[in-house]
Amino acid sequence: MMIRGVISLSVKFWSFAAIVALAAYLIGSVSFAVIVSRVGAQDDVRRHGSGNAGMTNILRNYGKKMAAFTALGDFGKGIVAVAVGRMIFTLAGITVLDGGYIAGFFVVLGHLFPLYFGFKGGKGVLTSLGVVLMLNWVVFALLVVLLLPVVFIVKIVSLTVIIGYILFPFFTLLINYIEGQPLLFNFAFALLMSCLGAFMHRENIKRLLAGTEYRFGQKKEG
Description:
222 residues, mainly alpha, 10 helices
């Protein structure tokens, strides 16, 4: 009977985990950068600049107003996905583990490889921030307090973002330990999300190692 109960719980967990993953991925696939550029400029931002469907590329090509709408959408969908993931787990009666962490990883995955827009998206920084805020506001606050001085000291946004990805899983582990939350499960998904984000910044990492990464305030050649 005990074995049957464990199997039943496992099947239930993985079934609803799959539902959360799919829902979050579809939410993440709503690319606000592409939508904003198509509606506001009858264009596709991915044809310009870095080719990324993200707020920075929108700002460079279309200005602050369209960038603000993009930022709000990208940040907001991270919040919405985590809320949906938690709601699904709660309705399913799964309270031991946090469905928000599954949702957090898959909403970022959807942003990077959007189903509705040819699997070509952005780098997921703002969506990740929305996810982190919803998962644990203490972790979010720690990252903001530590990283804001860093970005103004080094003047390299990508380096600051990469440091954030490195710190996020370990801050998650620390705060979850203090709060008595599940450690391995939450840490694993936080680590997966950070690895995904770092992978999307691989070209930035190459430029950082070569000493050629852009510093804000620096004049670009040409």
